[in-house]
Write the structure tokens for this entry.
Amino acid sequence: MKVLLIDVPFGSEDIGGKHRNFAGVLNVIPALGLAYLAAVAEEDGHEVRILDCARGLGWSAVSEAGRSLQPDVVGITATTPTFYNARRTASLLRGIVPRAAFVVGGPHPTAMPEHTAASDVFDFLVLGEGERTFVDLLRHVEGRGALRPDDIPGLAFQRSGELVFTPSRDPISDLDLIPFPARRLLPPLGVYSPTPASYRRLPLAHIMTSRGCPTRCNFCDKAVFGEQYRARSAGNVLAEVEEVVHTWGAREIRFFDDTFTLNRRRLEAICQGMKRLRPRTPWTCLTKVNAVDLDMLRTMRDSGCWQVLYGLESGDDRVLSTLGKNTTVEQNRRAVRWARQAGLRVRADFIVGTPRETPETLENTLRFAKSLPLDFAHFNKFVPFPGTAFYRQIVAAGYPLDFSGSSSTLDHDALVYVPPAVPERQYRAFLDKAYKAFYLRPRYIIRRLAGLRTFTEFWGNFKGAFSMGRM
């Protein structure tokens, strides 16, 4: 069959609001989830095309893809911020390929299946991890065998006006069995523009080496991959590194796992492989402050890692105690200090506006961020996304959550939630103030300029400064 997979249009105004906040530094990266689905669909004998609209393609590109391919199956991925554009995409293509089967998957359908199905534009919802469910569904649509949708774990669909759920599907235990993402179906890496804080060299390739996260953060939606940590073997990871470097021209790697350092033995094996890689390729990763130590960070630095991203979340212990991460301000400070001692740069994510936030705790977080030797800090607006523990708590408390408008964390004008102890006007002001107060310090600017290593890095930082001036 012909299969069209779509990462839907979602432009700078969708992300940053009418002021296009952060338009110069948006993280435009390949749709790896769709590339994994494409790989298993091709392995099962189907003709697949990926339309990755994240790189600026609009509705005319969606229409043209439908007309040119005439797909039998249209697969769409949807988060909560992109859901209404996903619904519009399906509606548009139904007028062009009315006989196609329309499938939606991703965080929003998995966390909010009833809401998704009520849009009445999708034939099937893939819930949770998608590869095996999607292949089984393609076989059903094609008519191979006697497989009924009721017999396919991990699905939801409407029948006679009622939403039918099949049994949930067990997570894939051996991730080495999944083929590498079908990157040849995506545009070249050089077409994408990752956020400047994430690279020194371009093109940058993103690699996922594990799934599932055992940390029970109240603000994180783990509906798709769950809490069971599963990791690819070091050899399998290094084979993909070789592919993206030698076949697809990557000059830098970003390991995109929630916590890349969770398995120390595997990490050390990957570091040994990165040291042997030629050409020597720099890399970065995401991890947690309670999943590193100084020796580990030095091992990473010796193998080419130049930066780590920590989710510090808050500079106030009272707020941290409500987030479910089981970390403290002192642990945050120590992990940053260790990274700097190991010779690494540090990016930090903060989440501001969670339920126990007060004007005092907001200022504590900003003060804490400014006290650390951070290279980049992100002060992310809190959105209680469906599928998170905070969402369930806030809904149970009677707070009227409305996701019909923008729910992008970068749109400072659209507030889905305001913490009860913080006046709305003060919260809005803080979201912009935090960035300016952190980045426009003379000492910070001098240190950043002194630390630049490549022209690519300089140009990315220049775009970041221009974006800051528009806020």
Observations:
- The chain has two domains: 2-165, 194-382+417-469.
- The mean pLDDT is 93.
- DSSP finds 17 helices and 15 strands in the chain.
